[in-house]
Specification:
Arc Repressor Mutant, subunit A, D-Maltodextrin-Binding Protein, domain 2, 3 domains, two-stranded antiparallel ribbon, 10 helices, 12 strands, 25% strand, LysR_HTH_N
Length: 301
C-alpha cells in the first residue's frame, strides 16, 4: 500500500467523481482509476460503487476512509513536528478561536507574539467551544483559546488566564437602564437575545437564570455578538454578554449593567491535548501567551 494511493482514495471519496479527482490531483484519470483498483485488490474489498455519473463509498469504504483520514493527519503532524524541531521559529501554529471571545483582545496578544517571532505562521480556526475541544483532541488544531476552561477533562489540559463578568445589556431607554447594577431576577419578564443553543456562553446565561428561579424567554438567537448588540439597541430585547466583548464597543443606544445576584462569571484560557505533546513552535507560543496574560493580571487588567 502506497501513500499516493491513500491520497488518491481520499480525494475520490471527497469529490465522488474520478475525473474531478484526477483534475485536482493533476494526474490522468487512468492513473487514479488504476491506483484505486490496485488498492481494492490489495484490500480484497470494493471501496466504491457507481451511481449514475458519480461514485460513492461502500460501507467498508466509509470505515476505511476514517482510518485513512486519521493516518494522513498523523503523517502531516509528524512532518510538521520535524520541521518545528529543525527550526521552531519558522513553524506554523493551528490555533482555535471561540466565536464568543473578543477578537480584538486576542488579536493584540497574537500581534505581540508576531512582533517577537515574525517568521512563525498561523492558521486560525473559529468555532464553538465543543467543536474546538474536539478538534484539539483529534489533532486537527494544535491548541485553542477557550471559554469556559475545562478543569477536569480526561483528554484536555486547561490553563485559565482570567475570569470575567457576564453583564446585562439593555436598550438605553429600558426602565432599568439608570440603575448602577441589577439582580438577574429583575429580568425574568424580559425577552432575551442569546447565542444559539449549544454555545457555552448561552449555557452560562441560562444556568444563571435558572439559579434564581426562571427559564429565560428567548425572542432572538444569533451567533454574532455584534448583531446581538444591534438587536438590543433596536429595543428588541435584552442580552447577557461577557464584559470583554463590550469593552470599547458599547453602542450608545445600549446600557451595560453589572449583575450582582448571582455573580455571573466565565473563565477564559487555553487548552492543549492531555495525551500528546505539543510541538516546539506551539510551546514558544504557549509560553508567550501564558506570560502575556500573567503580566496583564499583575498590572490589574
Amino acid at each position: 500500500m502506497e501513500l499516493r494511493q491513500l491520497h488518491y482514495f481520499k480525494k475520490v471519496a471527497e469529490l465522488e467523481h474520478m475525473s474531478d479527482a484526477a483534475v485536482e490531483l493533476h494526474v490522468a484519470q487512468s492513473a487514479v482509476s488504476r491506483q484505486i483498483s490496485n488498492l481494492e485488490e490489495e484490500l480484497g474489498v470494493q471501496l466504491f460503487v457507481r451511481s449514475g455519473r458519480k461514485i460513492h463509498l461502500t460501507p467498508v469504504g466509509k470505515i476505511f476512509l476514517e482510518r485513512v483520514n486519521q493516518s494522513l493527519l498523523e503523517l502531516d503532524k509528524g512532518k510538521r513536528e520535524i520541521e518545528d524541531y529543525l527550526n521552531p521559529e519558522t513553524g506554523v501554529i493551528r490555533v482555535g478561536l471561540p466565536s464568543s471571545l473578543s477578537a480584538r483582545s486576542l488579536s493584540k496578544a497574537i500581534a505581540g507574539f508576531k512582533k517577537e517571532h515574525p517568521h512563525i505562521g498561523f492558521q486560525l480556526y473559529a468555532g464553538e467551544t465543543k467543536e474546538l475541544e474536539r478538534h484539539v483532541i483529534e489533532g486537527q488544531i494544535d491548541l485553542s483559546f477557550i471559554s469556559p476552561v475545562p478543569t477536569d477533562h480526561s483528554q484536555l489540559n486547561g490553563n485559565i488566564f482570567f475570569t470575567e463578568q457576564v453583564i446585562a445589556l439593555l436598550p438605553k431607554h429600558h426602565e432599568l437602564a439608570n440603575e448602577t447594577d441589577l439582580r438577574l431576577n429583575q429580568l425574568r419578564s424580559e425577552s432575551f437575545i442569546l447565542l444559539p443553543e449549544g454555545n457555552e456562553l448561552r449555557d452560562i446565561a441560562v444556568r444563571a437564570c435558572q439559579e434564581v428561579g426562571f427559564d429565560p424567554v428567548v425572542g432572538f438567537e444569533n451567533e454574532d455578538i455584534e448583531m446581538i448588540q444591534s438587536l438590543v439597541s433596536a429595543g428588541l430585547g435584552i442580552s447577557m454578554l461577557p464584559e470583554i466583548s463590550l469593552s470599547n464597543r458599547l453602542r450608545k443606544e445600549t446600557t451595560a449593567l453589572k449583575i450582582i445576584d448571582p455573580n455571573v462569571l466565565r473563565t477564559v484560557g487555553l487548552i492543549t491535548p492531555r495525551h500528546r505533546s505539543i510541538g516546539p513552535t506551539e510551546h514558544v507560543f504557549y509560553d508567550y501567551i501564558t506570560n502575556y496574560y500573567e503580566q496583564l493580571d499583575q498590572f490589574g487588567w
